[in-house]
């Protein structure tokens, strides 16, 4: 018996406890992503510090720990326990509504045609610039709460609908406020190079970011006012070309930001090759990535954040997930939540990845947990159920974990508990709860 030390949470007797990985792997590639660690008849302990203290067979955990030492015990008989999901790419801070553009897309308008007609990013920029910080925080908080209820416990959140220093900082302050006040984990991304502002050339916008935006960000980071983790650029034809992208990303890296950017989405830009060269942590989209780019990313251990909602909603060709997996790329997933791809749910993203990108359910779960955490530089603390990692977990009301992916849109009644740092942050009243005491 492990003494009388107090603990926060015991999840006991789970039908399946999905470790994802169990040997401290920073990511899963090839065969590792295809076969996940799963324990049956297992229990898990989270300490008062919010970290996992023990994982193992239920009888072994029962003999090690006294039930009297736990603040909360949940009987998970007939249920599954999984790591909290990680959403590796979102744009959740904005004002304005672009539901009208959905009709345009259905009528055949392309992303760039909508963009050039004054819609797309520029429409959102106009509304976001006008919105107060309080208005932005209110809608952002609501969106994060919906993501949490759908099982996401760590979310990457971008700025990028300001395109001027004042509004970009306003968005980053909103993200910082949520990071400090909410239970959900946040990785903050500066994305001032999301589009070229009206009235500027790409070169002028690049110079403004390097000479004005990034020095201010560095100052605010050093003072502790804003915590920013990543730098992002939309590397695309008619937006930021390869050389502008290189300059901005290198300048961001020089002030300590991880490189995590949009590349090879609508046109082949050699973004993957650039990212591998610069030591990028991750590159998103990659619908038009070259074979050489895939090889370079695998060699550089640069994660590919694939976004099946984007290809689905914009009717683009799907990213080459199978080729990337076979070549040893670290494949992660993100919802790409934004006004153009309005999806809060990583279970639905995993389902689309399986159906449209031909990923297996094991590969999709690895991509939405350990590999998505890797893409954010956080796989040492998130993404799997291992001793020492943060106690972010899901309990689902099913005897097989695959139901989280199989039930397309079914997560609303399937997820029983969402847990962050061993604290229950969402309990689904629609699920049977008599096993909790």
TrEMBL record:
Pathway recorded for this protein: Amino-acid degradation; L-histidine degradation into L-glutamate; N-formimidoyl-L-glutamate from L-histidine: step 3/3
Keywords: Histidine metabolism, Hydrolase, Iron, Metal-binding, Zinc
Cofactors that this protein relies on: Fe(3+)
InterPro entries according to UniProt: Amidohydro-rel, HutI, Metal-dep_hydrolase_composite, Metal_Hydrolase
Domain Amidohydrolase-related span(s) in chain numbering: 81-425
SUPFAM superfamilies given in the database record: Composite domain of metallo-dependent hydrolases, Metallo-dependent hydrolases
Pfam families, per the entry: Amidohydro_1
Catalytic activity: 4-imidazolone-5-propanoate + H2O = N-formimidoyl-L-glutamate
GO cellular component: cytoplasm
UniProt key word Iron: yes
GO BP annotations, alphabetical order: L-histidine catabolic process to glutamate and formamide; L-histidine catabolic process to glutamate and formate
Keyword Iron (UniProt): yes
Molecular function GO labels: imidazolonepropionase activity; metal ion binding
Record Gene3D superfamilies: Metal-dependent hydrolases, Urease, subunit C, domain 1
Enzyme Commission (EC) number: 3.5.2.7
Family: Belongs to the metallo-dependent hydrolases superfamily. HutI family.
The protein's name: Probable imidazolonepropionase
